[in-house]
Write a structure and sequence with these properties.
Blueprint (H helix, E strand, L loop, with lengths): L2 E5 L2 E3 L5 E8 L7 E7 L6 E6 L6 E3 L7 E5 L5 E6 L8 E8 L11 E2 L3 E5 L2
Parallel strand pairs: 2-11
Antiparallel strand pairs: 1-3, 3-8, 4-5, 4-9, 5-6, 7-8, 9-10, 9-11
């Protein structure tokens, strides 16, 4: 069974950091671009960042540039999203998804995780 699992979410104060992980089972992430998306209550799902299958290309939403970093782990089948200088507006459920290439549209991704909650609050 092909599955993505996110972890690392939680409650953090403004200005704090979290590292999210996206792990795969049933397939290897090496052949897929991996995108991170987030969805806040009452809002549409939005793209946060994406990394190509080779790891040589990354992109970020303007709202997170300079604060978030996406990377492929040395450990097999894991992609990370390092989130620094977190703001209350970063509060959302964060999802990772796999596709052949980085797409803007969520509907183009083939596999999705169940999401992990990130709450930024004092």
């Amino acid at each position: 069974q092909l599955q993505l699992v996110e972890s690392g979410g939680g409650l953090v104060q403004p200005g704090g950091s979290l590292r999210l992980s996206c792990a795969a089972s049933g397939f290897t992430l090496d052949y897929y671009a991996i995108g991170w998306f987030r969805q806040a209550p009452g809002k549409e799902r939005e793209g946060v960042s994406c990394i190509s299958s080779s790891g040589g290309s990354t992109n970020y939403a303007d709202s997170v540039k300079g604060r978030f970093t996406i990377s492929r782990g040395n450990a097999k089948n894991t992609v990370y999203l390092q989130m620094n200088s977190l703001k209350p507006e970063d509060t959302a459920v964060y999802y990772c998804a796999a596709a052949a290439v980085c797409w803007v549209e969520p509907r183009r991704y083939d596999y999705w995780g169940q999401g992990t909650q990130v709450t930024v609050s004092s």
